[in-house]
Amino acid sequence: MSGKPADESDEAQVATDATGPEASQAHQGAGAPTSEGPGGGSEAPGTSGGPDTPGASEEPGEPGGSGKSDKPDKPGARGTSRRAMFTGAGLGAALAGLAGVAGGRAWEASRRPEDAILTTYPFRGDHQAGITTPAQDNMFTAAFDVSTTDVGELKTLLSDWAVAAEQMTAGELIGGQPSSNKQLPPKDTGEAWGYKPNGLTITFGVGRGLFVDAEGNDRFGLAAKMPAILKEGMPSFSGDQLHAAQSDGDLLIQACSNDAQVCVHAIRNLTRIAFGTATLRWSQVGYGRTSSTSVDQETPRNLFGFKDGTNNIKAEDPADQLNEHLWVQPGDDAAASWMAGGTYYVARRIRMLAEVWDRLRLIEQEQTMGRDKRYGAPLSIANPTKASEEFTAVDYKAKDDKGETLVPADAHIAVVSPEQNQGRRMLRRGYNYTDGSDSLGLLQTGLFFIAFVRDPRTNFYPILDRMTRSDALQEYLKHEAAALFAIPPGIKKGDTMVAASLFS
Predict the structure, then answer these.
(1) Could you tell me whether strands 201-206 and 278-289 are parallel, antiparallel, or unpaired per DSSP bridges?
(2) What pLDDT is stored for residue 88 in this prediction?
(3) Domain total for the chain?
(4) Is 301 inside any structural domain?
(5) Which of 7, 301, 403, 428 would suit a FRET pair with 137, their CA atoms being 20 to 30 Å apart?
């Protein structure tokens, strides 16, 4: 891990030390319960269509290291004062300590902490931010049920959300500076007052319940525009133990940033703005990204200790690949032409049975995942010796000297890889969660799996169905909640509300 720049003060050194060995150790254990994850795809480096948060490399020869060098400054990251860097890095270290293994992602940005703190992403564009954006350290997602029956009030909410979200993603207070009239409640709750943008992105989605009620009645004159994917809903899968109150909803907000408090600030304020129009249905806090969405990011480890998300769609993939697997295209759904340029959000809250997994022999863990635990190399490499072997293509036919297949047929990577699923891919963007312990003293921890996909009926459901039926990893997982939302295209210049295309 690198230290401070040569010209930095002792203040900055304190901040660097705070995110040093502890964060590096935390990195070794952060991630999600899948090595490839449903629908992970092959990496295809190219050029990015937007600013990236700088990634950091692991040192050559270290377990799990990529050997990549540091990248130059990226657009969207501005310079910072010594005090600003100290404050941001110190806060990040404190929150990482509270979140445990969340510090792993803080370590990734530690070589250039100012980049993670000062980075901003455009709120407006062809696509919403928070999808191909390089995955940030923290996530806070909330789903809402619309309580009003007045379409005008709904539009007002979506307009107010757009204004507030654009200000917050720019690192500004909602409504600008506080009113001088101290007899009025402030427009901004203030817990991120003075904080840097921290790469905040806010992504909005709409669910089936926005179009029709439980009886199928048109709620806001939008039923004719409901996408077929929402109308059909997500099917049931083997072993589902889903809680309805923690699933689906009418509206979705996903806030991601490199500072947990910035995420909380975003959801808290948008929830407050919704008062009287929509009520919070469920929410989920996540820490530690579970896959990389940019070639600059290293592969994280999941909470089972394995390299996770080696294969995933990247922002730098060729445009034709993103259009094929990620972005809704004109003509996909005649009724939902307003969705062109958008995508679909699929979430699964998957609890990991950590205590059971921790008692497995190492060889059992590796055969369940299909990868070497130290380097992340596929088991088709008999004796991996370096980190770069993580990216070696899996040979599913490779056998040992006894004629036994090196990668078991029910190993996780063998079940969910694109090569084994007719090339189906999706963009995975999940996060770890830990909600304390249950009444038996067992950790309530796991993966809040998130995928963005052009059509989940072809590129998600078949893979998840195969995974829940034949993946050896399923013995150590419980699927507790699920959600399906349509993610409208980006908020364009001149748009005054979220999901403007739906109402046009």
Answers:
(1) unpaired
(2) 36
(3) 1
(4) yes
(5) 7
Contact, 174 vs 298, CB < 8 A? no
Residue 112: what pLDDT?
62
Long-range contacts of 84-88 (CB under 8 A, 24+ apart): 84/114, 84/117, 84/196, 85/8, 85/12, 85/15, 85/113, 85/114, 85/117, 86/11, 86/12, 86/14, 86/15, 88/15, 88/113, 88/114, 88/116, 88/117, 88/195, 88/196, 88/198, 88/259
Q: Judge whether 369 lies within some domain.
A: no
Query: Hey, what are 334's tokens?
Result: 């005649």
Which residue from 305, 288, 306, 286 is spatially nearest to 297, judged by alpha carbons?
A: 288
C-alpha 171/C-alpha 195 separation (Å) is: 7
Among the listed residues 478, 394, 330, 333, the one whose alpha carbon sits nearest the alpha carbon of residue 36: 394
pLDDT along the chain (504 residues), means of 10: 36 35 36 42 36 34 35 37 33 36 39 76 97 94 98 98 97 88 91 95 98 97 98 96 97 97 98 98 91 76 82 82 95 97 98 96 97 94 90 92 93 89 89 92 94 96 95 96 98 96 94
Give the H/E segment covering residue 266: helix 260-273
**Integer Cα distance of 167 and 170 in angstroms:** 5
Q: For residue 296, what are its two tokens?
A: 């600059």
Distance separating alpha carbons of residues 283 and 254, to the nearest angstrom: 10
**Residue 378 within any structural domain of the chain:** no
Structural domain range at position 195: 146-363+408-503
pLDDT of residue 105: 40
